[in-house]
Amino acid sequence: MKNFRYKINNSGKRSYLPNDVWLSAFIILAITFLNSCQKEDDIVVSMGESITLSVSNSELILSQKQASESVFSLNWTRGTNHGTSSSISYSVEMDLEGNDFAAAQIYDLGKGVYEKKFNAEELNDLLLNYWGVEPGSTASFEARVTANVVKEGVEDGVSEILTFSLIPYKPVSEELYLVGSATPNGWDIGNATQMLPNLSEPWIFTYEGQMKSGTFKFAVNTDDCWCQDFYNRDAADDSKMVFNEGGTGEDLQWEITEGGNYKVTVDLLELTIEMTKLTGPEFNEFYIVGDASPSGWDIGNPEAFTQSTADPFVFTYEAVLTPGEFKISTFAGDWCDGNWINPSQPDQVLTATDYIVTNGCDGPDNKWRVTEETQGRYMITINQYNKSIKIEKVMLYIIGDGGPNGWNIGTPEPMAIENGFYVFEGELGADNATGEFKFSKYKGDWCDGDWLISATPNQSVTDGSYIIRHGCEGDDNKWKLKDGEAGNYKITIDLDNEAMTIVKQ
């Protein structure tokens, strides 16, 4: 049976209430009584404990391989608001040990945050560029966290100071270049071949393209002082690299013995290199055909191009072109037996550098045109890697301190052309009576083309016998003036018959 209490209402009548209602009323009366007894002091309910700080790693060696990864964190407890029900915001200070936080990095992190994370790149940058820590050296740090109680007049909480040590790394270069005689641009450091960085692992670089027989190394920029950082071959292991800061150390280089298309991959963190020779060129034969060429229209027996031994993607042909037209075949036989190299336009001028490939007797039968004004001796160079063609007039230049151009290979004055012969009439030995000289078929850089060199070292200036040297390969013989031989000479060179006469006037 349910128990009831009753009360008398204003009319004097009794009204009955259940026991649980009487209990609630009693509790309310008790709390009211306690409050009426309080005079000055508030009742304080403690909320939380003093703030404490911890660290994910007390000793940490940073690595660029983890550049984008979270590798270090400061963590703290909630702290106390001293029972005020006030919110708390947090700030973290971090500085070198012993600085008394005078140069601290301060992070105001707001409310409800109990951790400050750092990725390797961010933390490494602070160590190197803010605090000036040397790469590879150990630096001691200290940190503290403050619990900022938002309510005015309430004391903030500050953790005890925590110490830890960090070791930064030296970031590798964000750029890398190939330079050397084996590379497309040779030793021209200002025009060195740039490698491509891996997007997800930017310390890995790749180059895919032509390499010639020769040597190479890696530069971090295109400054021409040669005092920059280089990566050179490890003396003990060709698959390893050595970092030579400021161009110091042994200048060991990798060697390409067979030119071609290569893929080169380097890892600047692991200091490794991988080289893979890729498949060869699309065509292995080229022939000139047309009435402007020595072959005429004889497709059965055309004159062939020469494949470069240094780079199998490159083919050259040198001859006198007369007024008329020509195109280039990849075969000899019948007109529709194979592919053709045609200019992109009909009657194409000789200065154009692009070409198209047509199949058999299909496609446009475009041809290059030689005029009365443009006829002469030409060097035709086909580069299958970048699908380009160069048709350049062959000129001869005297190079050396015994000749009129000195050692100026960049902008020498050419010999004259008379009836298909190359002729020089002038003084030899004007600046150096016992100087020497040789002949180039180009201007630019020392290994960019072919040379006519004397058959023997220090050859007499009256002996016209010569040999062809390609680029910087082989001997570097020269003609040498002896005492009393300086004076005016006439030099005549017949490239078709490989003959030269040198007569003192």
Let me know the CATH homologous superfamily of the largest domain.
Answer: Immunoglobulins
Q: Round the mean pLDDT to the nearest integer and report it.
A: 90
Q: For the report, how would you describe the main beta sheet?
A: 6 strands, mixed
The percentage of residues in β strands lies in 35-45%
**Known CATH architecture of the largest domain:** Sandwich
CATH topology of the largest domain: Immunoglobulin-like
How would you classify the helix and strand content by structural class? mainly beta
Radius of gyration: 42 Å
Which CATH class of the largest domain? Mainly Beta
Low-pLDDT windows of residues = 1-46
Whole-number total of structural domains: 5
Quick one: overall form? elongated
Q: How many extended strands?
A: 40
N- and C-termini, Cα separation: 149 Å
Summarize the amount of helix as a percent range: under 10%
Tally of helical runs: 2
Question: What features would you describe in this structure?
Answer:
The chain is mainly β. It has five domains: 4-37; 53-167, Immunoglobulins (Immunoglobulin-like); 177-271, Immunoglobulin-like; 287-393, Immunoglobulin-like (Sandwich); 397-504, Sandwich (Immunoglobulin-like), CATH 2.60.40.3620. The protein has two helices and 40 strands. Strands 4, 6, 7, 9, 10 and 11 form a six-stranded mixed sheet that branches. Strands 12, 13, 16, 17, 18 and 19 form a six-stranded antiparallel sheet that branches. A hairpin with an 8-residue loop joins strand 6 (88-96) and strand 7. Residues 1-46 have low confidence and may be disordered.
